[in-house]
């Protein structure tokens, strides 16, 4: 089969022929039909953690070819079932393969059944939506719209309104965070930041922000509190988490509020102290949902059983009809052979301050905003 593999020395990806993987008893073999790009896919290709030969990529959608012998019939996962999920790819020092290939294997309970979405739409959901769900329901502990084994502190507050601010409202994670926040049994007043051109889009279903301000305004932290009579908000989720964004988000929160971020202080995306913030932001890696050790340079996140259990519950909710509208899709021309040349060029290395963008005239190479780059695998 064809796969996009890491060339660590060249800091790029190369399409190569590799063997089709064999599923273990608890896995399914998936024929990949679409992949969606995430900034981390480009980041850890340009700055490799792993060795050459690793299959790159995270998000996928496709159809099951074979189910392992221990996959329960109650899962409704069989040959021909349309599913989506994500793998870790080259985003860790381990040897696990990623998703940018014609076939892949994945544990059966870490995929979700695609209902009324296309492969291209479904491919945009798994990693970013789980990132948002982990932040809202595990770390901020908002009441989830699906059952969890552990009682949450806000289980008894289903009928009390909670205010949430999401910084970076048009980012991929934030688009899912807004939908999931509104899906909570707890009534949510949703505040956010975005460019003015996205304001109308984000005010409507399925996002339904109650109040939006322009993130480019220096005093947006004060502006966002005006409709709340100047009172601080209950929860904050900074979907940018770079430079001063964490501090600005923290300034919108009441004393005792909780704040989640998508990038860590340890990773040097921002360096504001806890004393200055008034709250210690909560950070976690989406990869924890895979239930495996995550190895970086000089750091290992141990396998997290709670995070895996949460991922299984979230994907079961999606399988059973949990409603999420996919991120807007920009369908890119070509397949695996165009991912690095076009897709990674558009994404850069994943930092707003570190872009590898080269000027291109093609319409599909316009700057990315509020979209996911998707390739079909034929």
TrEMBL record:
<keyword id="KW-0560">Oxidoreductase</keyword>
<dbReference type="InterPro" id="IPR013154">
    <property type="entry name" value="ADH-like_N"/>
</dbReference>
<feature type="domain" description="Enoyl reductase (ER)">
    <location>
        <begin position="10"/>
        <end position="326"/>
    </location>
</feature>
<dbReference type="InterPro" id="IPR011032">
    <property type="entry name" value="GroES-like_sf"/>
</dbReference>
<protein>
    <recommendedName>
        <fullName>Enoyl reductase (ER) domain-containing protein</fullName>
    </recommendedName>
</protein>
<comment type="similarity">
    <text>Belongs to the zinc-containing alcohol dehydrogenase family.</text>
</comment>
<dbReference type="InterPro" id="IPR020843">
    <property type="entry name" value="ER"/>
</dbReference>
<dbReference type="GO" id="GO:0016651">
    <property type="term" value="F:oxidoreductase activity, acting on NAD(P)H"/>
</dbReference>
<dbReference type="InterPro" id="IPR047122">
    <property type="entry name" value="Trans-enoyl_RdTase-like"/>
</dbReference>
<dbReference type="InterPro" id="IPR036291">
    <property type="entry name" value="NAD(P)-bd_dom_sf"/>
</dbReference>
<dbReference type="Pfam" id="PF08240">
    <property type="entry name" value="ADH_N"/>
</dbReference>
